[in-house]
Amino acid sequence: MTVANLFSSLTRLGLSLLALSLSAACSRNDSSQINPADLKIRRAMIGEWTKQTNNLSGVLTLRSDGTFKSGWTNPASNPIRSWEYEGYWTVTEGVCVTTETKSESIATTNKLPPGTERWKIVNVDAESLVWEFNGETISLTRKR
Questions:
Q1: Run of H or E including 43
Q2: Which of 2, 6, 11, 35 is the most exposed place for a label (fewest CB within 10 A)?
């Protein structure tokens, strides 16, 4: 997987999390409407997740209130490029849906507009979060 593809996937994750957040905002106080399996996945996803490679490092924070924030840096670029995203997230039928409401980039014009993304959750446990997006598998590690 190239750095551009990984960044694109992670950026789309941020957007998807934003869509999920909007959905969650509408039903934040009523978990009785959430499928029990989705609720279990959602609870397991809450927290801080990291990804670190030679060309990309970052943190994705999924909050219990249905909001998210992520920050990504390409330390191999000159100048160093970075991106920050904020929005909403939720889980529906085993898919994480994100909606990005805020996007900022530094030292690059490569910035995604606000939108919605959907990631098929492959696995989430105490240590890892794995999803599929556009034929790619993305893995993050829980930040300790």
A1: helix 36-45
A2: 2
Neighbouring residues of 43: CB distance < 8 A, sequence distance ≥ 6: none
Residue indicated by tokens 């909001």: 67
Report residue 48: phi and psi, to 5°: -105, 135
Q: pLDDT by residue (tens digit) across 89-122?
A: 999 999 999 999 998 888 887 777 788 999 999 9
pLDDT digits (tens, 9 = 90+) for 9-67: 555 555 444 344 434 444 444 556 779 999 999 999 999 999 988 888 999 999 999 99
Q: For residue 113, give both structure tokens.
A: 């507009």
The percentage of residues in the chain with a pLDDT greater than 70, rounded to a whole number, is: 78
- At residue 63, φ and ψ (nearest 5 deg) are -95, 155
Give the DSSP letter of residue 33.
G
Could you tell me which residues come within 8 angstroms of residue 40 by beta carbon, excluding any fewer than 6 positions away?
Answer: none
Total Cβ atoms within 10 A of residue 38? 18
pTM of the model: 0.75
